[in-house]
Amino acid sequence: MKARLSGVLFVSIFILYSAVSAQAQELGPGFHKIKDGIYTFAPDATTTTCSFVVTQEGVVMIDSCSSPLDSRKMAAAIKKVTDKPVVFLIDTETHSDHTANHFIFSPPATIINHQGAGEGMKKEYDPKRAETLAAKSPEMRAALEGSRMIAPHIEYKDRMTINLGERTFELIYLKNVHSEADTAIWLPKERVLFASSAANVRRFLNLLPSVVIPDVLASYKLMKSLNPEIVVTGHGPPTTTKVFDEYEGFYTLLLKRVGDMAAQGKSLADIKNELKMPEYADWHNQNRLGANIDAAYKSVKK
Ligand SMILES: [Zn+2]
């Protein structure tokens, strides 16, 4: 009897599990259901991740995907899950691979990011983007219908809380970690953290001259202190706080190696020639090691 009961239980769990995973699969490859009503779309290991969260009063999106084709897939996925409109679209950074397709969601979405985001987007804006992309395929041209740049409607300072329906979104500004304005989004009840591109998943980041590695390390400490269960970074599939540990290890080792070589009197050019990070040979975008050495050199020379 007991065995039969557990058999029934097992079958029911299996059916429930299949139903849940089928639901996310139905949205297409790259979509993950991370919690009830919370979905991410990571097309592959390195392409920009975009996400959406359903609430009783509408949808909140995080980033608007890199390719307009991905954004259209995202819009279709949202429609499959809910008939509610996208109320807010929060940007985790200013770069165009996260922000250039706002036109697909806004209106009705109100765009939000930290102070300085609009300014940063305007600096990077490429007026030829739509034209260049449209030449790639008729599908791409169709997906670009209505293309225009939309800077954030709302820019907050340091922290902002959004209460929508049953959910709370805490927006946290991360200084000097990636772009002109980087925002982490924390859902305290669900313990889901959208971590921006302060970290990605096993990938060398293209550190711009404005990035300060000690500030990046401080952002990991802050984000870990929230104790999230699931972490969604700017690029790559959903993960956990282990990404922060991995990047912490990487930057700590990089700072140590660059610091030692600089102390031996080596120039930045020498260091770039000689320094290797074989422990991270399987990370994507190895060609960005130079930019990482630049940032590390600036930190150790301070
Ligand atoms: Zn970026």
Structure overview:
By secondary structure, this protein is an alpha/beta fold. The chain is about 40% helix and about 20% strand. It has ten helices and twelve strands. It has a seven-stranded mixed β-sheet with strand order 1-2-3-4-5-6-7. Strands 8-9-10-11-12 form a five-stranded mixed β-sheet. Helix 7 links the parallel strand 11 and strand 12. Helix 7 packs antiparallel against helix 8. The longest helix has 25 residues. The chain is globular and about 60 Å long. The termini are far apart. About 40% of the residues are buried. The chain binds zinc ion (ZN). The site of zinc ion has 5 residues, from loops.
Q: Taking Cα atoms only, what radius of gyration do you get, to the nearest Å?
A: 21 Å
User: Topology as H/E string?
Assistant: HEEEEHEHEHHHEEEEEHEHHH
Number of β-strand runs: 12
Strand content range: 15-25%
Largest sheet report = 7 strands, mixed
Bound molecules: zinc ion
Q: Name the average pLDDT.
A: 92
- How would you describe the shape? globular
Order of strands, widest sheet: 1-2-3-4-5-6-7
Alpha carbon gap, first and last residue: 72 Å
Structural class: alpha/beta
What is the count of DSSP helices, taking H or I runs of 4+ residues? 10
Stretches with pLDDT under 50, minimum 5 residues: 17-22
- DSSP helix fraction: 25-40%
Short synopsis of the structure:
The protein is an alpha/beta fold and 302 residues long. It has helices at residues 2-26, 68-81, 96-99, 117-124, 129-134, 138-143, 213-225, 242-263, 268-274, 289-300, and strands spanning 31-35, 38-41, 50-55, 58-62, 86-90, 110-114, 154-156, 159-164, 167-174, 182-187, 192-194, 230-232. It is built from ten helices and twelve strands.
